[in-house]
Amino acid sequence: MEKYEHEYGADQIQVLEGLEAVRKRPGMYIGSVSKRGLHHLVYEIVDNAVDEALAGYCKNINIKIEKGNIICVEDDGRGIPVEIHPKTKISAAETVYTVLHAGGKFGGDSGYKVSGGLHGVGSSVVNALSSWTEVTIQRDGGIFQMSFERGKVVKSLTKIGDSNKTGTTVRFLADDTIFETLEYDYEILENRFREMAFLTKGLRITIEDLRGETSTKADFCFEGGLISFVEYLNKSKEKLHTTPIYIEKQGDIPVEIAIQYTTSYSENIYTFVNNINTIEGGTHLEGFKRALTKVFNDYARSHNILKEKDGNLQGEDIREGITAVVSVKVKEPQFEGQTKTKLGNSEVTGVVQSMVNEALSNFLEENPNVAKSILEKCVSASRAREAARKARELVRRKSALESTTLPGKLADCSSKNPEECEVYIVEGDSAGGSAKQGRDRTFQAILPLWGKMLNVEKSRADKIYNNEKLQPVILAVGAGIGAEFDISKIRYGKVIIMADADVDGAHIRTLLLTFFFRYMRPLIENGNVYLAQPPLYKLSKKGMTDIYCYTDEEMEKHLLKIGREGVNIQRYKGLGEMNPEQLWETTMDPEKRILIKVKLEDAIKADEIFTILMGDEIAPRREFIEQNAKYVKNLDI
């Protein structure tokens, strides 16, 4: 890692405003006080260490989840400056932890060339939202320590020893009076730090969970950087070329890109700015897509793969089956979009576009076999897109000729306001019949499905439009699919998958979720998809109101309370076993039902899971089943 040669002392710690209102309005600074916000605390501290790595001074970051959910983050960077800050008149280290917007990340004369921290609020916000924080710094030949409680200084920075090493260690316990839970999810943190290690070539990140009887540890260091990242993303997919295409350019805006094509039909492009995942894309993504479309069309024309009479390949044809990671480093990034994760710097588009134009053109000329295999797939995708267009037009014409544009089996609701309407996609005609009779017709629509659905992981859009099981779903949702999907046109605010609580029901749910993820992703991102939770058991006893139980644990709890004698336990194998009144009371009544909202916390992890479960490769699926078999409950025998 090339070092950014610049002073990093107290003068580079710039103070923008005091630490106020963080404890009153934590959501403004970390998004929420749920589990998501809790994990954000760890990211903030690790981001500071990664910034040291980006500057070329840190090689190792160690994260530990200690017993009692105490977090410890240790790095071997330069250590936070310890001398007195010229404006605050306290140590620079104390300033960083007690003053909001104090850090080495602002303006052209800061301590960092680029920074992953969005606002420079990390350290002080973590301190403000923790019961206690302890910071140990090795720097300038000494070991220094300071401690805080709920953001207030308990022990000012004090030298406690000598050391010829450098680095910072931060230990903190999140405040249980602020957060809904203090329980960290090891897997969420592991995924995040694996991603960080991929994006920072050569940086070693370890994470260790010490809470259980035996510890769990992961060690990440990828000398291949983005090449390793793309190989990891495609580990369960069949590749068109063995080694990813790698493009790198230094300069005012360093750009790093890795590309690999697979035989799958989905497009997976992940973009990052200063290691921040820009899930909404932005100018770097725009430049990449433009260059990709131009380079492949130019190559296809010049090598007679596309004839004069042929139209150009569309961007979506060229991106079918692509896995790419685009990482740029921008000195002063401007973020926009709904979640502030869309890059807005206009100058980045041209930089990325010209770089990809040149490097990718050279690669294709030097690797004609790879170019040929990718373009054969692109041409095939173009033909399938045309077939999908014809199928789509056929669906539209068919709809226009019928008295209604809705599928015949759909029992619609009387309200036309999407915000209050919901559609239940129900497995089987029998359960569909009960649901139709038991529902509230004002706002609840029912769409029964029957038989096994199409696995869209192995199908192109033309097959999907012609599929008799999926056509009703597309028409009922009413917003199109794929690139044409328009979230503003959805007919129902809640799309609820209601399937049996057995293996077949789980399979139906997975098939539908795969379809929504691949072809209606905004539906999941916008929080419109839900899973109904029908009860597993009904407990009946003379002289007692029936009790419905949704888990084995809940049933055992009730049996302990009412006793087992004289209790009839009915295990529901399917929704069809419930009459309309029972289905309403247990699964459809908004006052009593349990719905699980499907969230897209991590698109990379979701893509991996759907590829493993529904893709062509058998070995990764076998490995996944072996690893997760111990968690299975209610397996039908």
Notes on the protein architecture:
By secondary structure, this protein is of the alpha+beta class. It has three domains: 10-220, 2-Layer Sandwich (Heat Shock Protein 90), CATH 3.30.565.10; 226-384, Ribosomal Protein S5, domain 2 (2-Layer Sandwich); 402-534 and 595-631, Rossmann fold (3-Layer(aba) Sandwich). It is built from 19 helices and 25 strands. Strands 7-6-5-8-3-2-9-10 form an eight-stranded mixed β-sheet. It has a five-stranded mixed β-sheet with strand order 11-12-15-13-14, with helices on both faces. A five-stranded mixed β-sheet has the order 19-18-20-21-25, sandwiched between helices. Helix 2 runs antiparallel to helix 4. It is flat and about 75 Å long. The model is unreliable at 105-111 and 400-404 (pLDDT under 50).
Indicate the CATH class of the largest domain.
Alpha Beta
- Strand arrangement within the widest β-sheet reads 7-6-5-8-3-2-9-10
What is the overall shape? flat
Structural class: alpha+beta
What is the assigned CATH homologous superfamily of the largest domain? Histidine kinase-like ATPase, C-terminal domain
The fraction of residues assigned to DSSP E strands is 15-25%
Number of domain modules:
3
**CATH third-tier fold name of the largest domain:** Heat Shock Protein 90
Biggest sheet character: 8 strands, mixed
Rg, rounded, reads: 28 Å
Spans where pLDDT lies below 50 across 5 or more residues: 105-111, 400-404
Assign the CATH architecture of the largest domain: 2-Layer Sandwich
